Amino acid sequence: MKTAIAFWNIMLKDFRNYYLKPPNISWGIIFPFAWMLMFFLKSQTPVDVRAILPGIMAMSILFGTTSLLSVTITFERRSRSFDRLLLSPISLTWLMLAKTLGAILFGIVNAFVPVLIALFFVNLPHINWVIVFMSVIFIAITSTFLGLFIAVSVSEVFEAQTFSNFFRFPMVFLCGLFIPLGQLPVYVRLLSYFIPLTYGADLLKTAINQDGHITVPISFSILIIFSIVLFLFSKRNIQHKWIY
Fold this sequence. Notes:
Helix content is about 75%, strand content about 0%. The chain has helices spanning about 1-15, 20-40, 50-80, 80-85, 90-120, 130-150, 155-175, 185-190, 195-210, 215-240. The longest helix has 30 residues, at about 50-80.
């Protein structure tokens, strides 16, 4: 019972203190929306909204979750409030889940903002919404745990933000969101398969446009593996660097 109360209050505190702050709104919602607007302005032909929708959804999740974790975890570590949370009646594993569940929910909500915008321009028939929703959940989980791993690897907020961009921008261009994997050079394509967003984006392409290249079970399995590995590495960093 104490664990459940502590879990709920830690997550609720993050909602009150950090969510819907300007950095999270700009990176999680406005930035992907700006990308969508860029396609409309730069394209000389009618834009296929449905074709770019998986990429915009994946970016909304990636930038929203990683921006959120880089601020919350690093700031609390800097202000020593995270140290006080370690004294709460909750295990380190449940504490980390409490700190990340809100970001996962934030990423899920962010993913469907582009969908709502797209509905103003086109109809979206023949979409496998079950796979879409499951894909969004798994992308949000892996992106959040990536943000957690980055946050617990540095000591300053600006370092976390810089480190986040070191991962985020290469991922956007290497995971097949805007450049199909088949058009990438072979050595770059091999690198793409080590990026979790590659599998999440492919799942969204399969569900929305039926043009994915990786089977659905394989993509989900690899996303689960990435999530577990990132979470365990983050927990190990906290235990060895933050807990004396």
